[in-house]
Design a protein that fits this description.
five-stranded parallel beta sheet, Alpha/beta knot, binds 4-amino-N-(4-chlorobenzyl)-1,2,5-oxadiazole-3-carboxamide, elongated, single chain, alpha/beta
């Protein structure tokens, strides 16, 4: 999968996009990414990318011309162009799984008070990561890219890892324990040392149901 970010702040991306699992995905040749800066497409001598809204009002809007040209410079046949904003449909795990099947994603990161409305004709989808307002689309774009990339086939160590976890099953994760067996006087559950894998699976499913009922009862109603 190829991921391109259209952003005025390309410096925000490498520390997130070249770390951890994203680094491994790139080493394996499964994911590659890049940034394109609308400022490089500004025609005037001041490299202007924003202007005041027609009709007045506070703040600045991103100009259609440089942002549109930046998008056009990376979009090809089959590219999916995604705009991040609080007005979008809420991103979730199901959306991550479906986007993981795409060959080329372009994330358009807005900044300031908004973008010229006419740019929306270049967007295939508008997504939100939740009901709050950030200063720009860069963090949401990286958040969505991370959730999508880990679902690209071959990125996770175990191919079934994404399918067996929380959300795919409709339940939260079961509690997990590692060394030491006793920490600050609290022992890990005895059953996990029994060697009885059927019993352990049953315990985990029950624990996942309990955790979901307690912390996220809305997930149980949804299924
Ligand atoms: C988005 C600021 C576009 C300016 C933002 C522009 C957000 C969210 C968000 C800030 N994006 N989910 N919540 N974006 O707050 O996706 Cl032009």
């Amino acid at each position: 999968m190829r991921i391109d970010f259209v952003t005025l702040f390309p410096g925000m991306f490498p520390s997130v996009m070249d770390a951890s699992m994203m680094a491994r995905a790139q080493e394996k040749g499964l994911v590659s990414w890049g940034c394109v800066n609308p400022r490089d497409f500004a025609e005037d001598k001041h490299k202007k990318v924003d202007d005041r809204p027609f009709g007045g009002g506070p703040g600045m809007l991103m100009l259609a011309e440089p942002l549109g040209k930046a998008i056009d410079s990376v979009r090809k046949k089959g590219t999916k162009v995604i705009f991040l904003s609080p007005q979008g449909k809420t991103f979730d795990d199901k959306k991550a799984a479906s986007l993981a099947k795409e060959k080329h994603l372009v994330f358009v990161c807005g900044h300031y008070e908004g973008v010229d409305e006419r740019l929306h004709e270049l967007f295939d989808e508008e997504l939100s990561i939740g009901d709050f307002v950030l200063t720009g689309g860069e963090l949401p774009a990286m958040l969505v890219a991370d959730a999508v990339a880990r679902r690209v086939s071959g990125v996770l160590k175990k191919e079934d890892a994404a399918g067996s976890e929380s959300f795919a099953s409709g339940l939260l994760d079961f509690p997990q324990y590692t060394r030491p067996r006793v920490w600050r006087g609290r022992a890990a559950p005895e059953i996990l040392f029994s060697g009885d894998h059927a019993k352990i699976a049953e315990w985990r499913l029950n624990a996942a149901r309990k955790a979901t009922k307690l912390k996220r009862p809305d997930l149980l109603k949804r299924a």
